[in-house]
Write a structure and sequence with these properties.
mainly beta; Methylamine Dehydrogenase, Chain H; Immunoglobulin-like; four-stranded antiparallel beta sheet; 1 helix; 46% strand; globular
């Protein structure tokens, strides 16, 4: 066994570069933004080290080091989580859409669904008077529990039609609830509620806070802040400065010092109990949804796309903790090998990685529009097409670009060798080059005003081009060539829908996603496009199809109306499809797999996610009910192995009822991380996990187990 000292020296630098922030619900981890890219709705810090954040898609983050690192906690839901409410050392609640309330009694590590007694709606906020009695609010919702949240009952039917955003109780009898532009008050523990204040309808309140039993603040749109000094009975507007932003959150770490945050990265501070507010420089432009301070000096604000900023000096300076190379929508992607790849997106975005996506750099380029398509023929030479009708070429791995063609919108670039490439374009045209892009010859099909969104070649001579018209409701088309693009002829797909995605496994077998945003179908052919048959009816528009063998493939779809996305996986050639759990519901535009385990997906708001498990979570279960007394990483068995091996490890109980973050990572002989088998919370137990190395070459590998207080590494040998 190698010494821990020796291994730590080998891997220390690489480890810092390759931290993966995985999501328990998913087999995917974020590469941009980091630590994650879902919008954050609420944050709360128990002390300067320990805090929580909730957000979209079931996001619940925990930090124990002041946001230097984050742990994603599995909430077993994809609902938006609006509020994190901390009651005491072990008890906390989260609320969300689909009338969700969950409770934790172990410091936020595990969560149990509560029975709200309501069928529809969202729970925006929650407040407890004591360990048993609490209230929660939402659209036309005020509910109450008297047994610690196990059951809830609706109260005050007169509130129907009003949306409540927050609730607070001063004592067991007296409380107030905040609506769009009004305040309700109860003096009998919620039995009756009276509207005590109505503001002008151009107010749209988002949040309120009370610093004692008398003094409270409301904030919302148009930079407005209101103050009460009589327990919410009356409210007066205070001077919050010029209208520069809508505010989302307000909090006071002490009686005189308070903060608000809102759109455009705006943060304001008061040092005189709200009489005056001074603009702080957050150094970010993203909308900030929540702000929280552990004391007068140490605070955090989070929001859009997972942005995280922190101050240690009361807001004088703010430092961005999160890491984001871009928030522009990403449209296309290409990889030259497992390490080197490029991504294109809105506002002339071109990203590059040379280490499997652990780091992405933003390349400068002369484009004036979004990058719609790209392809590279080697590590140095590649092509990108933008939304202004310009085709660019680089021979320096993206350092320099030259304009080689313009005048036509180009949607799909595909090179079949070093010299020959094709472009699916507007105006019913397919372009071909046979000299590495120096010249392009058009082939115009006999169709009026068609657009080729997809070009795909299954071999040197046989290729397909799919598309439709400028409108979603125009008739779709698929054309085929059998002589390397010299001629193209039309195929009959038996569908009039637009062809939004196209992929062929070989010359005979291919798939097409067709849609008009109402009807969405996956078609398959097994005879080179002569006949097509429907294999799946989806609820949303197919955006990308990718197969890496005849059986295993992925499909992504987006909803034009609801905004969510889905990914599906097949292991039997498209006969059946199963939903792939993702790390976000942002729309996905492009997917790529280098093998059956390693893949990427890119999409809206700069989303880049990666999987090293074939897109599905790795199941790991305890193999013994006995709690180990100490950490131990066993030698894998069998060893040597081909192609799979099992790894056992023990996690002891360090702190009562507390889970630990555990990482199990595989490295090659050079110390380069090749896959993360596990990176989540585990309860004390003995575990076993299997690693399938079918896609890796023979050789020596290392596997490393790391927790907060333990690190161990062992060697294993793959022989094929």
């Amino acid at each position: 066994m190698l010494s821990k000292y020796y291994i730590s020296k080998i891997f220390a630098f690489l480890f810092l570069l390759s931290i993966n922030y995985t999501f328990s619900q998913s087999g995917w981890f974020w590469q941009n933004p980091k630590p994650q890219g879902n919008d954050i709705e609420s944050i709360y810090f128990i002390n300067p080290a320990t805090g929580f954040a909730t957000g979209e898609f079931g996001t619940l983050l925990k930090t124990t080091d002041g946001c230097s690192s984050f742990l994603s906690i599995n909430t077993f839901t994809n609902q938006k989580l609006y509020k994190f409410y901390y009651y005491d050392g072990n008890t906390a609640f989260i609320t969300g859409s689909d009338v969700l309330i969950k409770k934790s009694t172990d410091g936020g590590n595990t969560w149990i669904q509560q029975n709200t007694g309501i069928q529809n709606g969202s729970i925006y906020s929650i407040h407890f008077i004591n360990s048993l009695t609490g209230f929660a609010v939402g659209p036309s919702i005020i509910i109450k529990t008297t047994n610690g949240g196990n059951n809830w009952t609706s109260i005050n039917s007169s509130s129907s039609g009003y949306t409540f955003y927050d609730i607070h109780f001063f004592n067991v009898n007296t409380g107030i609830a905040l609506g769009n532009y009004f305040v309700y008050r109860t003096t009998n523990s919620g039995v009756n509620w009276i509207k005590i204040e109505s503001f002008s309808s151009d107010n749209y309140f988002k949040d309120f806070t009370f610093i004692d039993n008398n003094t409270g603040f409301i904030t919302g749109t148009q930079s407005r802040i209101y103050k009460s000094t009589n327990a919410g009975v009356g409210w007066q507007q205070v001077n919050s400065g010029n209208y520069t932003s809508d505010f989302n959150c307000i909090m006071f770490p002490s009686s005189n010092i308070g903060f608000v945050c809102g759109k455009n990265g705006e943060i304001k501070k008061t040092t005189n109990a709200g009489t005056n507010w001074i603009l702080q420089i957050s150094n970010v432009q993203e909308e900030l949804s929540s702000i929280n301070f552990a004391n007068d000096n140490t605070g955090w604000s989070m929001g859009k796309n997972g942005i995280v900023v922190k101050t240690n000096n009361g807001g004088v300076n703010w430092v961005t903790i999160s890491n984001c190379v871009t928030t522009n929508d990403l449209y296309c992607m290409t990889f030259i090998n497992e390490q080197s790849g490029y991504i294109g997106g809105g506002l002339a975005t071109i990203l590059k990685t040379t280490n499997g996506g652990y780091q992405w750099s933003n390349l400068s380029n002369p484009s004036q529009g979004g990058i719609l398509s790209m392809d590279f023929i080697n590590v140095n030479t590649g092509f990108v097409a933008d939304g202004c009708g310009v085709l660019f070429k680089t021979t320096t791995a993206g350092s320099n670009w030259s304009n080689i063609m313009q005048g036509s919108l180009n949607f799909s670039i595909k090179f079949i060798n070093q010299n020959t490439g094709f472009i699916g374009s507007a105006n019913s045209t397919i372009f071909r080059t046979t000299n590495t892009g120096d010249n392009w010859n058009p082939f115009t099909v006999p169709e009026f005003n068609k657009v080729f969104f997809n070009v795909f070649f299954s071999s040197e001579n046989i290729g397909y081009a799919g598309g439709g018209g400028p409108s979603n409701y125009d008739t779709g088309i698929v054309y085929k060539t059998t002589n390397c693009g010299s001629n193209w002829f039309k195929l009959n797909t038996n569908s009039t829908l637009q062809v939004t995605s196209l992929f062929f496994i070989d010359d005979n077998t291919g798939f097409a996603g067709v849609s008009n945003n109402i009807n969405n179908i996956i078609l398959k052919t097994t005879n080179s496009g002569i006949n097509w048959f429907q294999i799946n009816y989806t609820l949303s528009t197919p955006t990308a199809i990718f197969f890496f063998d005849s059986n295993t493939g992925f499909l992504t779809c987006k909803s034009t109306y609801s905004g969510w996305n889905r990914m599906f996986k097949t292991t039997n050639g498209g006969t059946n499809w199963s939903v792939v759990p993702l790390a976000s519901d942002n729309n996905i535009s492009s997917i790529y797999f280098s093998n059956n385990l390693t893949g990427y997906a890119v999409g809206k708001d700069g989303l880049i996610i990666k999987t090293t498990t074939g897109g599905v979570p790795i199941a790991i279960e305890p193999i013994s009910s006995e709690i180990p007394k100490e950490y131990f990483l066993s030698q894998n068995y069998p060893n040597p192995f081909n192609p799979s091996t099992k790894i056992k490890f023990d996690i002891p109980q360090e702190v009562r009822d507390q889970k630990l973050k555990v990482k199990l990572i595989i490295y090659d002989i050079l110390g380069k991380e090749i896959t993360t088998l596990f990176n989540e919370q585990l309860s004390p137990a003995s575990y076993e996990i299997e690693w399938n190395a079918s896609n890796y070459p023979s050789g020596v590998y290392f596997y490393s187990l790391t927790t907060g207080n333990y690190s161990e590494c062992r060697k294993m040998v793959l022989i094929k």
